[in-house]
Write a structure and sequence with these properties.
The chain is an alpha/beta fold and 219 residues long. It contains eight helices and eight strands, in the order H-E-E-H-E-E-H-E-H-E-H-E-H-E-H-H. The protein has helices spanning 6-27, 54-61, 80-85, 97-109, 134-142, 154-157, 181-184, 189-218, and strands at 30-32, 43-47, 66-67, 69-71, 89-91, 113-116, 146-152, 172-175. A six-stranded mixed β-sheet has the order 1-8-7-2-6-3, with helices on both faces. It starts with 5 loop residues before the first helix and ends with a helix.
Length: 219
């Protein structure tokens, strides 16, 4: 974290509080079992991907600073300064890319937390899509805890293909027990993908069920 200047840290904390307040007010965000996220040391948070809302929603409920991947095109557009101040990791259109992998590995080895959406892109229907294998390489090289995350309700708030989000909704975020390095080392890449898929889907199902129960109580 020493690589960031003081203004970047202040800027991140300002947006952390602002986004947290807005999402709580507009989408009544509820978080479950955030205690599973390690407070120190390198960690990978692996989540399903429903919407543009996912990164700020997950980042705003985690008590430590998190790192995100952002498309390289965003670094050249009007969001360039904002993305740079948040210290995002450039993401190639076709994947993380070599430079992105190197920077991700560097930050994990420096004891930082990275949020990754292993589906590779946002869901078109709100359901979880098959995982891409890129995270396996990072997991093998860094040997850090992998925390599964399920988010439900972000799709309804801002569906892929729509230019603007709805200004109402209910979002639930479920964290699961981390897959520790000693356990993940026992799997080959295919088995590791299957295990992460199972854990993320379980968190997604739990988040969706809790969201439905919460909404039914308000009817």
């Amino acid at each position: 974290m020493a690589r960031r200047n003081v203004w970047q840290r202040i800027y991140y904390r300002f947006w952390w509080w602002l986004v947290r307040f807005i999402l709580l007010l507009v989408y009544r965000v509820r978080v479950h079992d955030e205690r599973h996220v390690p407070l120190t040391g390198g960690a990978m948070l692996l989540a399903n991907h429903q919407s543009h809302i996912d990164p700020p929603a997950i980042g705003s409920v985690v008590r430590r600073q998190t790192n995100f991947l952002a498309r390289k095109t965003l670094f050249k557009g009007p969001l360039n300064w904002h993305i740079a101040m948040l210290d995002a990791i450039p993401l190639d259109q076709e994947g993380i890319g070599l430079s992105g992998i190197k920077e991700t590995l560097k930050r994990l080895r420096n004891g930082e937390a990275i949020v990754i959406f292993p589906e590779g892109s946002r869901s078109w229907d709100g359901e979880m899509q098959p995982l891409m294998p890129g995270f396996c390489l990072i997991a093998r090289r860094c040997r850090v805890p992998m925390v599964p995350v399920g988010i439900a309700g972000a799709y309804e708030a801002w569906r892929r293909g729509t230019p603007f989000p709805k200004l109402s909704g209910v979002i639930h975020i479920q964290f699961g027990p981390p897959l520790m390095p000693a356990e993940s080392a026992q799997y080959n890449d295919i088995e590791l993908m299957a295990e992460i898929d199972r854990r993320v889907r379980q968190c997604f199902d739990q988040a969706r069920a809790k969201r439905r129960r919460a909404m039914s109580r308000t009817l």
